[in-house]
Amino acid sequence: GVHLGAAPLTPTERRVLNLLLTANSEAEIAKLLSQSRHTTHQHITRIFRKFNVSSRAALTALWLGSF
Asked: Which residue has the higher pLDDT, 9 or 6?
């Protein structure tokens, strides 16, 4: 999973990723991590880039396919 990315994830990106792979919305993730929605969106964008995907569905498929 986490080793599939093009670059290592930061600790915050790992927390966002764990929540992103659940049913939580971006707004819920932001609230859970005490971040603004904008900051959370930036983290998600970086995660997508690092895994070379453009959607949560593609990220989930990639993550599930790595097991």
From this structure: 9
